[in-house]
Each structure stands twice: as C-alpha cells, then as structure tokens.
Amino acid sequence: MINFKTIKVNLNERSYPILIGENLESILLKYLKKIGSYSKVIVVTDKVVNKKIPFFFKVFRNLSNMKIIKVILPPGEKTKSFANLQNLCEKILKAKIDRNAIIICFGGGVIGDIVGLTANLLLRGIDFIQVPTTLLAQVDSSVGGKTAINSKYGKNLIGTFNQPKAVLISTDTLQTLDKRQVIAGYAEILKYAFIYDKSFFNFLKKNGKRIIRLKPKETIESIEKSCRIKANIVSKDEYEKGVREILNFGHTFGHAIESFTGFSEKILHGEAVIIGMHFALKFSKFLGLCSNHLIDDFTDHLKDLKIPHNLEDYEIKMSYTDFIKHIKFDKKIKNSYLKFILLKDFARPIGYILKNEKVLEDFLKQNLTKD
Ligand SMILES: NC(=O)c1ccc[n+]([C@@H]2O[C@H](COP(=O)([O-])OP(=O)(O)OC[C@H]3O[C@@H](n4cnc5c(N)ncnc54)[C@H](O)[C@@H]3O)[C@@H](O)[C@H]2O)c1
By three-state DSSP, how is residue 328 classified? Predict the structure, then answer.
C-alpha cells in the first residue's frame, strides 16, 4: 500500500491536488496517467538539481515511454531574469509544442517561479506541474500560483498568478539539500505556526530537530500542515487582496535585509525571513500589540534548534537609515504607506499601516546600530 497524503487547493475550475510522500517514484506513478494525455512533456530544472537528483529522469523513463524535452537553467536567484525567460520560452517553442503540452517544473522556488510565468505566457497558457525539490519550495513557493522574475527595481515585480495542475512533493528529493537551505525552508514552516496555528508551533517545539534533520515522518507532517494552511489561505484569497497578505509576516523586514545584501549568498531568503519575523515580533511589542512571551517563544525555539535569528549572526551591519531605505524598496507599499504584518498573538496577525514613519525610525534606532 503506497502511503501519501493529498491536499486539495480549492479554486473552482483552477483547483488542484498537492500530493505529499517520501518516494518520488510512487508519487510520479500516481500522476503519470494524467501526464500521458499531453502531447509533449517538457521538464525544466536547474544545473544543480539535474546533477544532484538524476533519479527523477530515470524514474520517469522507467514509468513512462513518453519522450521528455529537457531544459536546464543555471541555478540561483539571478536566473529569474528577462534574459532567461526569453531563452526558456524560445527553447520550449523550438520543440514545436502545441497548447496540449505540459511543463514539469523540477527544482526550487527559482525554477518554480520562472517556469510558472513561462507556462502562463507560452501560446497564451499551457499546463504545468510543480515538483519542488527544496523544503522552501515544498512548503511555500510551489503552492498558490504566484509566478515571477525580478527587475532592477525589485524582486518578483514581473509576474502573474498562474496555478499549477498539481504539486507533487516527495521528501526523498530533499536528501541532497544543504543545511542552510533546510533552515531556509523551516523559516516558512515556523511562519505558518505563528500566523495561523499555535498547536502547530507546539508540534514544531517537539519535532523541530527531527524536521531539520529531514526525518521523513515529521518532515512530511510539517509539509502537510504547512501546505494545508497555505492552501486554505490561497483558497480564500487567490489574488492577495486580503487575508493572503498575512503570508508576508516577516517578509517586509526580511526583504529589506535581502535587498541590502544584494540578494546574494550572504543571506538566503528564508534566513532573512527568520530575522524578519524576529523584527516583526519586536515591532509588534514596540507598538504594544503583543507581549514579550511571544518573542520569547520565538527566540527560545530557535535557540533550541541552534538557528541564527539576528543580523549579527550573519555579520550584517545595517543602520536604521539603510533599513528604511531598503524597506521602502519593497513592493508592499499601500497608497504610499508602508504595511507590515504584525502579530497580537499566535494566529492573530494584523496588517499595520505605518502612517507616521518616525515610529519605525524610533523602533529601528533602538534595535540597530547607529549611523
Ligand atoms: N511563488 C511564491 O509564492 C514564492 C514564495 C516564496 C519564495 N519564492 C521564491 O522562491 C525562490 C527561493 O526558492 P528556493 O529557496 O527553493 O531557491 P532555489 O530554487 O534557488 O534553490 C536553492 C538552491 O538549492 C539548489 N537545490 C534545489 N533543490 C536541491 C536539492 N534537492 N538538492 C540540492 N540542491 C538543491 C538549487 O539549485 C539552488 O542552488 C526565491 O526566488 C523566492 O522569491 C516564491
């Protein structure tokens, strides 16, 4: 008996399943009949994933006699560019696809974001499925249909909403992931617990160590919980006009840190989100929205897991003026006011619109080095 979990993202005619298990072969097998009805199958991956997880192609060949058109992109955030988008579109068009072709996106969030956009643009839209291979992509970016490339004016500014036909998640693809990338994924898992479900936080307190060691049972459970929460939120607000914005908890501060460090390897997105959540909790306390207990719950848990959660842990020195400048660069500015997702308590997020910038300045002055 093959054991895996299925979650449905409810979006009427755009609904789709998320399959989660520990064996890629059994998950692909389950979905292969559907793939078989397409005229052409294009698999897009990156160079690292192609090298580290060759068994995907072996499994696919063993299970199906369909010919795969394989496109390999360079790894890393810089891949989300116009040049790569053009290159990818043209490589796929060269294979003479029709509208009944499907793209399988095999990789982390970078590949997921650019492939989702490509699928939306080619022939005015062809189907795609996500087979995410980082913990971050499995719990976050592969679900919800946000696609994007970056602009010199900021990250993820050019994109669409385009839901996949399915998300196929297997934890055996994570085994080659390095520790930093696992922690980056754990950041988003922890985010769900704080914004949505205290009992999930209790589960993480008990099982966090096993999750960051990628023990299948606990990892699958945490992925399932995270995907259920994200699917729930996305089902209520597909286009981020309301409740979906709570998923940005920690991200406004986090993006400022990523932007300051030039979106480099110095700090990964998820690592910046951990520090960003720490800032968001401290800002919540500064505004009298939450008690110290909430911050202690956060920091005690991260100390227990030995996960860095301060700027100094990454030897990043930002002044408050740097911070404000880079926060403003972030796109989540509503009617020219900055907006932060803050917490009153577990599962009690609020959207805080900053009408008086001095408040942020005072907070940052207290929490950062001077100019
Ligand atoms: N669309 C969304 O809703 C959404 C949500 C969150 C993040 N994102 C985007 O996701 C991106 C970050 O995703 P990411 O952290 O997965 O980054 P990534 O795709 O760059 O992957 C990180 C690194 O790990 C490598 N890798 C991937 N799978 C591997 C594996 N199994 N073993 C070994 N190495 C592996 C990749 O080659 C890459 O070098 C950002 O661009 C961010 O903007 C999108």
Answer: helix
Q: What torsion, rounded to 10 degrees, do the Cα atoms 230, 235, 241, 243 define?
A: -50
**Which structure tokens are listed for 327?**
């926060």
In this structure, the strands spanning 349-354 and 337-343 are antiparallel
- Return all residues near 302 (Cβ < 8 A) that are at least 6 apart: 274, 308, 309
Going along the chain from its start, the domains and CATH numbers come out as 5-189 (3.40.50.1970), 249-367 (1.20.1090.10)
* Contact (CB, 8 A) for 110 and 79: yes
CA of 270 to the centre of ligand 1 (A): 10
What do you get for the CA distance between the two ends of the chain, in Å? Answer: 62
Is there an atom of ligand 1 within 6 Å of 143 CB? Answer: no
Residue 75 per-residue DSSP state: P
Q: In angstroms, what is the span from residue 75 Cα to ligand 1's centroid?
A: 9
Helix 320-329 and helix 357-367, axial crossing angle in degrees, nearest 10: 130
Indicate whether residue 117 lines ligand 1 (CB < 6 A). no
Residue 106 parent element (H or E): strand 101-107
Q: Which of 22, 45, 47, 48 to mutate to test the pocket of ligand 1 (most atoms within 8 A of CB)?
A: 48
Alpha-helix residue ranges (DSSP H) falling in 155-215: 179-196, 198-212
pTM more than 0.90? yes
Residue 2 pLDDT > 60? no
| 102 three-state secondary structure | strand
pLDDT digits (tens, 9 = 90+) for 322-354: 999 998 875 545 557 899 999 999 999 999 999
